[in-house]
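Everyone, describe these structure tokens:
***
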Amino acid sequence: MGVLNYLKWILPVTRKSLYASWLANSQPIFSSFGKDIYLSDFVNNAIDRVASEISKIEIKSIVQNGEYLSIQNDDLTRLFRFKPNPLQTTSDFLANVEWLRRKNRNAFIYPQYEIITMPNGRQFRRYTAFYPLKPTTVYIGENNGQAWEVKMDFEDGSSYTLPYHDLIHLKWRRGANTVVGGGDDYGQANDYDIIRTIDALDKTIQGLPKSIEASLQIKGVYSAKTLADSAKMDKMRNDFESHITTSKSGMIATDLAGEFTPVRITPPDISETALSFLKSVIQERYGVSAAILSGDYTGEQHSAFYQTTIEDFIIQLEQAMTACLFTYREQDVGHKIKCYYSKVNYMATKDKMDLANLSKETGLMTLNQMGEMFGIEPFEDGNRRLQSLNYVNIKDIDAYQKGKAGIKEGEDDE
């Protein structure tokens, strides 16, 4: 409740809005749905693996002009260096956003800012925090045809209406709906197939120990060859069970007339192929292989994981944040949000050595950067680059070739 009260102070005061129009035949509304599938450890482990990897991303504010790129030391870069809000570190923030995106198929981030007015009257935004939002229901529509707005209902019953362009909106599992994620044409989650798979896997796992336990308990049926009343039959049964429990050699001596018929119960044999298939259906849904889940993956497997799962999040986050945080003019001059994800850390030692040799020849990395790949601490004078004399700057190639041909500067080469 304390967190909700804190968000109330952050979000603008709610106001009544009249939504004049909605998307025809596809009302852009979604509610939290499909919570049952998140009772499965297999689903949660897959999401957590993706969220943990995304939490390693570094977010920077940059200016890119053609091939020249420079990182800005502004309020955006500063906030995402350690803590984008007072409650979360950058790692926590990114993991939280991905969990919300996967579970609700949509994630909304509210950028808190203040308007700064310069002496010449020019105004700009100074961002002070970024908060992931967790609404229970979201409505998106137009306010009298003027602007798109988002109405959010929260768990405590509060409701807020915000301009859509003031929110960073990330989506997952797009369907035909043009506004929200979800998986079907109405922005709702479609969990029918995955629920069947989870149910089959859960029954398989629960049934296996039960069948083993049953096979160890029931040994056979003893039929007493005598006529006796109920009390005597109970005494005969207790005597027989006592003989069994006190037997140490596996041999039973009894004077009870009767016949013992062994019952053989064989536990079901569930093949590894069947279990792997059920797990793979869940893993493929979230873009996580068995090797990635177990942590026993190669560089090639991690590269595939990046391309199918991490890269999608990075592209969405870069585009959504850039569109929300910068004006059209700022975007025109090259301002944008850039996410950096180091893939070098997941290379095999041999691949790292090949990269270090290439960097040594071309000046791609400093000595300290090469040492960092192998866990070596920085050393004095390690921030210098080496480059082989066998390589020449592309701008100097013409002068070099003319010199080799004996042509002086200013002379025409024929």
Remarks:
- The radius of gyration is 33 Å.
